Request: fold
Amino acid sequence: MELSDFELFFLAFGAMGLGTIMLVRGGDWTIDSAVYIARKFGISPLLIGFTIVAFGTSLPELIVSINANLKGSSGIALGNVIGSNIANILMVCGASALVAAMTVKPKEILNDSIMMIVASVAMVAVFLYGTITQAVGAGMILALILYIIYQYKTSSKDHEAEVAEDVDNPQYSYPILAYVFLLLGLGFIAGGAEFLVRGAQVSATILGVPEAVIGLSLIAFGTSLPELATCVAAALKKHTDLIIGNVIGSNVFNILMIIGVAALVKPIDMGQVAPQIVNLDMWIMLAISIFFALWLLIFRKIGRVLGGTFVAGYVLYILAIYML
Reply:
């Protein structure tokens, strides 16, 4: 029996609601366990945010982009990455700053900020080239692996005392439970995002929204919700280092890992991508990334006013791409 549009909308919103609940719960578990692990091993929460949390919250983008590229929807695959990076800075960081103002130490984020800018510039370069080959994809993955190794080796081991004093993280009856809840949290995040994205896709399809706009808005927003859930949970717990590390790390992962893996599985033909993505959206993403990095390095703080400006800017961006 064929379902009516109303019934499809009802099911889609149900899936989106379930996905949202899973994202909130998963974000809470992920933050608690990640901070516990950072404290236990004397690893900076910033590094944990850049690696473990960033990788976990980028899983939805990875799954969506690979599937889209394999099905010939390279516009969704690339629009998802660009849209997610814009959402991570404007929506995720902005919403988190509205909950709790964030301060950073420029020395701690210098390398990560530079890496984010380099990855963004590299992405623009390969987009303009015309085809993202398997060799380019492999090179992007290798660059990410080498940088993570470098970050781990250069991470300060004497940060343990600072973490022990400043972080009020939960205690687990058995240390292994921290890893169990970390995996459960990441699993809930990935599963919740999948429910939400599928619901959004069904709704968008019924409304007849173009593929590029779906990738840049609904899918990008949906796959960025893990970052939003995780970072808002971190803001409520005053773990602002984890937020900055997660946002920067997720943006680097989105470019190097997601585009890299998607191209490694199947070369991405830029000729099949909507001109809007190459002519406008990737440049917006690059400009926002540069502004974000420079602001953190110069002013060292993102307060509620800038956070509100970021969120308003994201809403205006979404409205603009629907009106183009």
Remarks:
- The first strand starts at residue 102 and ends at 103.
- The chain has one domain: 5-323.
